[in-house]
Amino acid sequence: MDLTSIFHQMSMHPDHMLYTVIATEFGLFEYKRLPFGLKNASASFQRLMSTVLAGHTVREGQVLPDPKNLDSIKNTMPPRTKKQ
């Protein structure tokens, strides 16, 4: 996941796009993705990351699976038949 451009990957609600209008010599443009600098952009980013990384441990620039989940996967018996 490229966190440096995550803002430009997060969709905005269509009703909120009109608040991001930019006037240029070519006309009016509005953002369809979350731009940098909006008041609640960092909170929206944090909420997205909490959802995406739920159940994982984040430390020192690494995303690690939850140790409890990892143990249960390691201790699962392999299937013995095709139906399992």
UniProtKB/TrEMBL annotation:
Residues 64-84 are annotated as: Disordered. GO terms for biological process: DNA biosynthetic process. PANTHER family: POL PROTEIN (PTHR33064), RIBONUCLEASE H (PTHR33064:SF37). It comes from Araneus ventricosus (Orbweaver spider). This is Reverse transcriptase domain-containing protein.
